[in-house]
Amino acid sequence: MTSSDGNNTASTNLSLDDGDLHVCQDGPRDAPALLLIHGSASSVRSWDQLVPLLTGSHHVIRIDLLGHGRSAKPDDRGYTTPDQARRVGEALDRIGVQRAVVAGHSSGGAVATALAEQRPELVAALVLINTGPSLDAFIAPASAAIAPSQWPPTDEQLRRFASAGFSRPGYELPDELLDEVRCMTLHTLAATMQGTRDYLGERPLPDRLAPLGKPLLVIFGEDDRRWRSSSSADYRIVPGAEVELLPGLGHTPILEDPEQTAIPLLAFTATHAERPH
Length: 277
Known about the structure:
- The protein has one domain: Rossmann fold.
- The protein has a nine-stranded mixed sheet, sandwiched between helices.
- Helix content is 30%, strand content 19%.
- Strand 1 and strand 2 form a beta hairpin.
- By secondary structure, the chain is α/β, with parallel strands linked by helices.
């Protein structure tokens, strides 16, 4: 089923073998494709403020990963990073996208990397936004995780859980994004986060990316409180990799300052995005 809202977003639910995926498309369909992949405990809505800055020159595609947003949340499916990447590739096949620049925020960057490993013909170039290169770069949270007995969490628990995602004092996470976490199941949240840890633990992302030969842009909020921003230098082992640090921004620059985030992103896609044949 496909629907459109007042912002010209076409929203589709795709029925895949292991669950329905929610897909949003914005911008002209004959423009170069730009796929945006959200992080854990998030959804397509995390990109809402950035999308209007991108649609002038791109066909922008957003996908709710299985277990997130408006996609299905089955307890009997795999939530590993390669599983999520496979589904993203199937979704692109279904909507007829043959080639795209793929951008991922946080753990979405790990899914983007896995997609490039699995389907190199689909991925023209990669953009990783505050995606930690390895488990060594992770900053242990000061606040305790949400316990199973506390599910569904209260607003206050959710805000504490999400607080490390931002650097600006007093930044208020939009209520609609809190709702996205609340609508997840504890299983899908825990399994997705474990899947990311396993993927990074098997092999750091720069080591995975180096042999792929894909153009790479790494954007990092310099004040990230989840991943050491200095670890962004690890990506320089990837031939030709570009690394852009954004001062004054934290783990989620796509929400904290979408305009500043869009500048290096659009400069990169201007060179590497490809029009559909």
